[in-house]
Write a structure and sequence with these properties.
The complex is a heterodimer of chains A (about 140) and B (about 240).
Chain A (H helix, E strand, L loop, with lengths): L5 E5 L14 E6 L5 H11 L4 E8 L8 H24 L5 E8 L3 H11 L11 E3 L8
Parallel strand pairs in A: 1-2, 2-3, 3-4, 4-5
Chain B lengths: L1 E5 L4 H12 L3 E6 L12 E4 L5 H10 L6 E4 L14 H29 L2 E5 L12 H21 L5 E7 L5 H14 L3 H10 L9 H13 L6 E5 L7
Parallel strand pairs in B: 1-2, 1-4, 2-3, 4-5, 5-6, 6-7
Helix pairs in contact in B: 1-7, 3-4, 5-6
The chains are: A alpha/beta (about 140), B alpha/beta (about 240).
Chain lengths: ~140, ~240
């Protein structure tokens, strides 16, 4: 298992220093700059772990019809695909993985989420995506 | 911080009340009858039918300035093959799992608006994906999730935060009753249903009520105005 406070960054943006995980690993994915290869390699380097959360982090202000938004949407979908595949592959071995979509300034909500997912009662949340951006619309 | 938890005498409700209290919240627990409590006895109790005017009055007295969180954790099982469903059965399940939540929302929305509170409705993974021999139950839980989305569109600008919690199969007395009903509908044994459902969960176990209680607290304490729909299903339903 990895150490208890591991945060790995994918893309150009560094993860905030205050972000911590009670156990397992957080991957801070810069949704506008990260690459598929880097994401997969980072996941590989995190294993084995019992809890893995990919934080797909969007820029604070991105126009819905911009190239940046297209890229962020693409990388977010990639992260969802990777995590769901990983959940099927490693779930039986005790690994739970999820995706949390946030804006850059939503670190407190991301931290609350990681505290639950990576805490003693959070292991039953598995293979899911939680879009916490204020403008997100759930079906 | 003050929270109202409905169905607090049941498996999920009781665990939810306990989880809020463990985080330092003052909990007003409500159910149709007072105890026996599955977890520890709550600090404050309101007994009554959620749709009765008397219940709304009592809840108003318990929190004159409103609640910071309301968790609608009550519900009934709703199994039954489509061919055997009666009108009365469908109406009962819809009233208990859906229409009563509207009553809870109506009784607490003014206070939630004043305090910028969170309304957490406990739907189900059966509100995300259809299940066999559960027509009425799925109807009630799909309706609840959809209704929460519409409340979000109407009230989120007024500062109310909407969260829909969708538990998977969680070990509670209600689940045992549901599995027994499901087994009867399919003509198999309870043990066969239990084994089938457990093996279908990718993390290899059924949920615990503490998983759901902790999820309700997490959802209530999130600041985001987004309508968060949270499957807590062990990966059985990924979304």
């Amino acid at each position: 298992m990895t150490d208890g406070t591991a945060v790995r960054a994918v893309g150009d943006a560094s993860a905030p220093v205050e972000l911590t995980a009670p156990t397992g690993v957080i991957i801070w994915l810069d949704a506008c700059e990260g690459s598929v290869v880097n994401l997969v390699q980072t996941v590989q380097n995190c294993l084995p772990t019992d809890r893995l959360t990919v934080a797909a982090v969007w820029p604070e202000r991105v126009a819905i019809d911009s190239t940046a938004a297209e890229t962020a949407l693409l990388m977010t979908q990639v992260a969802i695909g990777v995590v769901q595949s990983l959940q099927f592959e490693l779930g039986g071995e005790g690994t739970t993985t999820n995706v949390v979509v946030v804006n850059f300034d939503q670190v407190p909500d991301l931290q609350r989420t990681v505290d639950y997912f990576h805490g003693p009662d959070g292991g039953f949340v598995a293979g899911c995506t939680f879009d916490l951006r204020p403008q997100a619309v759930a079906a | 911080m003050k929270a109202l938890v409905t169905g607090a005498g049941g498996g999920l409700g009781s665990a939810t009340a306990a989880a809020f209290e463990a985080r330092g919240w003052h909990v007003v627990a409500t159910d149709r009858v007072e105890g026996p409590w599955t977890e520890s006895a709550p600090a404050e109790v309101v007994v009554g039918e959620l749709t009765s005017p008397g219940w709304a009055t009592e809840v108003g007295r318990a929190a004159p300035e409103g609640f910071d969180a309301v968790v609608a954790a009550h519900g009934v099982e709703g199994t039954g093959a489509i061919g055997a469903l009666t009108t009365e059965r469908v109406e009962f399940v819809m009233a208990a799992n859906f229409e009563s939540v509207l009553a809870v929302h109506g009784a607490t929305i003014a206070g939630l608006q004043q305090r910028g509170g969170a309304f957490v409705a406990v739907s189900s993974q059966a509100g995300l994906q259809g299940e066999p021999s559960s027509t009425a139950y799925c109807a009630s839980k799909f309706a609840l999730r959809s209704w929460m989305g519409s409340r979000h569109r109407e009230f989120s600008r007024a500062g109310v935060r909407y969260r829909t919690l969708c538990p998977g199969a969680t070990v509670t007395p209600l689940l045992k009753t549901a599995f027994e009903g499901w087994a009867k509908a399919e003509g198999v044994t309870y043990e066969e249903i239990l084994a089938r459902r457990s093996s279908a969960v990718p993390v290899g176990r059924l949920g615990r009520s503490s998983d759901i209680g902790a999820a309700a607290v997490w959802l209530a304490e999130l600041d985001t105005e987004a309508h968060v729909v949270a499957p807590v299903t062990g990966g059985e339903v990924m979304r």
